[in-house]
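BUG: 3D viewer hangs when loading the predicted structure for this chain

Environment: internal workstation, default settings.
Expected: structure renders.
Actual: progress bar stalls at 90%.

Input used:
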Amino acid sequence: MTDSVFLTRVVLHQYKSIAGCDVRLGPLTYLLGPNGSGKSNFVDAQGCTDCRGAWRGNGPTYPVAASPRLVDPDSYTDVQKTIRVHRDRFLNKDEDFLKYLRLASAKAENSGWILILLDADDDCPAELGPGIVNRACNLVPHCRIAVVLPKREYEAWFLASADSLDGKRGFVLNGHVVPDPETPRNPKGWLSRHMLNGTYREVTDQPAFSAEIDLEQVRHHSRSFRKLCSEWIKRAENPS
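Structure tokens produced before the viewer hung:
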């Protein structure tokens, strides 16, 4: 058995939204602050905000549901680094599906669970999701599996909280009405039309917007995000 490492101090300088901080840590440390104050970024700097055994296809990801505002603040979820996959290869190639599922299972170990987060694209989440769950459970029956498919694209969650992003990273609404977040075929295109430079860049803007969105707004406006919250809470309340 290897010895555990206990951090006693975290010093950050110009990390994401944190200009600088010097924090002493005890055996139990609470992070308190309003939305957008940098709590998740502080934890992310220590390499522990990705969902345990989780993966997301096609682009960078940010584990928005890991916030204690959405889960019981008295519970703790030990989280591992996200496994990124190409959506179509993962779903359509059996060898890729098995490879990444086994990798996630190894990360989750005996007490963990696997969250699969993929864009629904043109598929119906209500039809595709259960199929992925059944397929995965047949391969790793000892693991608990959750599948969440944002309607159309992950960026639909940004539309669900567009008001909280207004004025950030060149995104401006200028009084335009935000469409139903789960209706547009191309949320990335809608975001691009409201960027001052005319381009939404998935690699850089996606994680930055994920760190800025108002999670309560997203939950209120997006059914697929509420699915993510319910799956997370269900497993946090029933860890075994």
